[in-house]
Amino acid sequence: MKHYNNYNLKNSFNLPCIVREIWFPETYYELKDIFSKQRDAVIVADCTNIVCRPEVDKVICLTKMPKDIDLINDSDDKYVILCNANVKSNTFIQYLLLSGIGGYENLYGMLGRLGSAVYGNSGSGDTCFSDCLTFVLTIDRDGNEFCFNKEDLQFKRRYSILQDSNNVITDICFTFPKKEIDKDKLEKAKEHRRKISSYSAGGVLKTCNVLKSYQSQLIGLRVGDIEVSDMVNVIHNHGNGTYEQFVELIDKILNIVKEPLQFEVKII
């Protein structure tokens, strides 16, 4: 297991954060061991949708964990696929496309890891990672192992019941009905990804539809190098943004939008 001091933990916004200590477990045994010893550490699957406060000092990062994809059943009417939670989301989408498996075309180019995608029920358009999910395997900080079926996870927009627990996803099973790839959907998804800056984590709000009434006030709103894009729900870093600028921009958005907002980006 790799362990670093004073590590620069960056996310998709390219906002640097120096953490005093960070651990990268590489096996499930190491993960259980570090869970039991560092109970006050923040756990991240990836840093794509996370913004760290400057004072965060202990982090367990899961990006060195196993990342395998196994087709365990190819019958006449379905595919069953078992994946490690550390598989990159877009690596999984590319695997489906190369295998001729349709259904997740809208998710092309999604950031982060499968574990965090399921944990937060990530999605795009009318498609979510939970759509074809069958079950997930998890462990908690005491080393207990659990299996949750799709119904157990109570998925809603950008929500699963795992967000209210201390469980970490280790493996995910999907079942896909056999259907052709929708090429039109795929091209639209690729075009959508091209519009999003490389220094962006995509949508920042679960309640993004609320912003439509305020877009004339929000588009172009900027603090330093952090700016609300013309997609309204996407925040760009033009190169030298800081945590403080990001938080100040969020405060400005909250002062303009007079309705309750739920953020998809997690500040830790």
Task: Report on this structure.
The protein has 268 residues and is of the alpha+beta class. The protein folds into three domains: 2-61, Uridine Diphospho-n-acetylenolpyruvylglucosamine Reductase, domain 2 (2-Layer Sandwich), CATH 3.30.43; 69-177, 2-Layer Sandwich (Uridine Diphospho-n-acetylenolpyruvylglucosamine Reductase, domain 3); 197-267, UDP-N-acetylenolpyruvoylglucosamine reductase, C-terminal domain (Uridine Diphospho-n-acetylenolpyruvylglucosamine Reductase, domain 1), CATH 3.90.78. The protein is 21% helix and 27% strand. The chain has six helices and 16 strands. The chain has a five-stranded antiparallel sheet with strand order 6-7-12-10-11. The relative contact order is 0.15. The mean pLDDT is 90.
Write down how many β-strands occur, each being a DSSP E stretch of 2 or more residues: 16
CATH architecture name of the largest domain = 2-Layer Sandwich
Strand order of the largest sheet: 6-7-12-10-11
Name the helicity range.
10-25%
User: What is the mean predicted local confidence, pLDDT?
Assistant: 90
Ends distance? 23 Å
Proportion of β residues? Answer: 25-35%
Shape: globular
Cα-based radius of gyration, to the nearest Å: 19 Å
